[in-house]
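User: Fold both of these, please.

Assistant: Here is the first one.
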Amino acid sequence: MSDKTQGVYKLFQDTARDIISDEEKWKSFLKVIAWSYKYSFEQQLLIYAQRPTARACATYDIWAKKLHRNVKRGSKGIALIVQGKNTMYLEHVFDVSDTVSREKNPFNLWEIRSDVHEELRNYLIDKYAPELEHASLYEALKEMIATFSDEIVISERLTRFKASDLYKKNIR
């Protein structure tokens, strides 16, 4: 592993310890990862560590080729550790704030519009938690997160805690 990769890995370890020991940092982390749901937990942690205000991250090529946006000159990428066949290496992503549109079009981040709350609530409850039939969307989501997090064990590279232990200890 290169020195740079080792440095990013140490940042990962330090940030992991930091967020599980402080309720406000844990909440802040959860807000950031809500926007970066396509990345692994470890990569989300690195995005948070390097850019706690990040909202939409992608590689240079994805911004340029798929989203038709240019990364601003001088922008500093967010280093992520990627596991290759035989080694780990760094890949850099950039936040939407580091980009400009070629066509001067605004970049619209996803959101759950209030007019679909009821439909979404009904779908999630029907599919995952029928026992919550009288819950609000917020209550249903909170309960499902607590339930599903019990099934997800965070990588041993981070900690031996279950995600639900972190959630219960630092959020409730």
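And the second sequence with its predicted structure:
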Amino acid sequence: MYIFKPLPSWLIHYLNSSDEKPTKVFFRASTDGGDNIIPTETLSNNPSDSFEPKINVSGNSVHVIWTELQALLTGHDIFFRRSTDDGDSFGPIINLSDNSGNSTVPEMSTSGTDVYVVWQDTDPGNNEIFFRRSTVNGDNFDATQNISDSAGISHTPQLASTIG
């Protein structure tokens, strides 16, 4: 999967190859429309598979989320990393879901310095949609909220935001 933003251009690459295990999330960027691309940076660092990456750019900040299979097959979690210098370097990995359920299908949106993340989660015993927000450009996040809170099955979250 490649996602570009025109000048400067941003690129995220998810490698899923049977020859490469575990699968990881990689980032590459270009500031000249793709003529020159900086070296690949591995964003995920897990002995198990990482998948479902998403990227969002706001100003010179690059936000990336993905799903990881946790050690010993105990479930999936949603992870986040950000860059505040146009993708030149990335901060620490943050586990946004950090629970015993299966957290999958992440989506992300940004508005200014606000970062919004939703995902599907089985932690309550059935599929629910969880939400976390950062008002400080992903430096830290508010507590997790169950925004569907339903006895039924909630799935396939979508997210959009706007300034103002």
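Confidence is low (pLDDT under 50) at residues 1-7, 14-18.
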